[in-house]
Amino acid sequence: MSTGVSPIYPINPIVETYSRLAREYDDEANFLSCWGRASERALSAIRLREDYQVVVDMGCGTGRAIYALASAAPQHTQFIGIDPAENMCRIAAQKAVEQKAVQIRQGAFEKIPLETASVDYLYSILAFHWVTDLAASVAEIARVLLPNGEMDLFFIGRDNGREFIQKTSAIFLKYMGPALLLDSARLRKQLTRGAASELFSKVSESPRLSVDESFTTYYDTLEGHWSWWVRVEGHFVKIPPEKKDPCDREVREALQSLAEPRGIPYTIHELHVKLRRSNVLY
Ligand SMILES: C[S@@+](CC[C@H](N)C(=O)[O-])C[C@H]1O[C@@H](n2cnc3c(N)ncnc32)[C@H](O)[C@@H]1O
Fold first, then answer.
1. Model pTM?
2. Which fold has domain 13-158+189-218+269-275?
């Protein structure tokens, strides 16, 4: 196993939280939540070419996608899963005993632990919005991809979760104050489709590169949403301990007030950055 568990990049609170929650990441509740469903939807859009030699999953988490893809791929395809969260890497690496085509390494978009021009296909599901340095991350992607390499990045856009945000912003402002609330919001990169197109134009130009966006509404119970909301979004909500219970109560009431017959809606704004081969034969 090659997880290289020494910290090779500055630790950040997002990565620490993912590492702490890694053991629960494969729980059914997470899988059935809007995030689990969005991950599966992205995975089902991935098509591997027969001639790929090296396929990389950035922000691979516990490795659900990479092992699913590796199990249906030709033997010559090598898979490398990369994640900055130590415990995510450990869990993903344990599964490599069964699937020898997969290697797991600790690393991040900002500093990808791979040789220059070594990757045929790079994909990432719901991780790129967590990068701390957009320019460095894009430069790293461009560095590791082969000249005619391909890519699919699925990540969250600026208008994500608008129903929850509209309902809860005033409550978080009341309990956190403007400075903390702003700090929290800044932890996630919130790109529009236009900003993503401009950013990735450094990797390649149209027609090889395109950026699509989608808005998909997922319905769930309050408990279903709450399990990820408090764990995944909640980790950056630095509310003083004595204010936590009353804040939680108000937030739950606000979310419940969104309920429709199908459940409580949450709309994921997803950006999909696609890089495809040019028609020129190399
Ligand atoms: C929502 S999980 C997605 C995991 C997996 N791709 C899936 O779909 O189940 C986000 C993952 O991104 C990782 N991550 C956070 N910051 C990252 C960074 N800067 N570069 C790469 N991955 C990062 C986290 O550790 C976490 O495993």
1. 0.93
2. Rossmann fold (3.40.50)
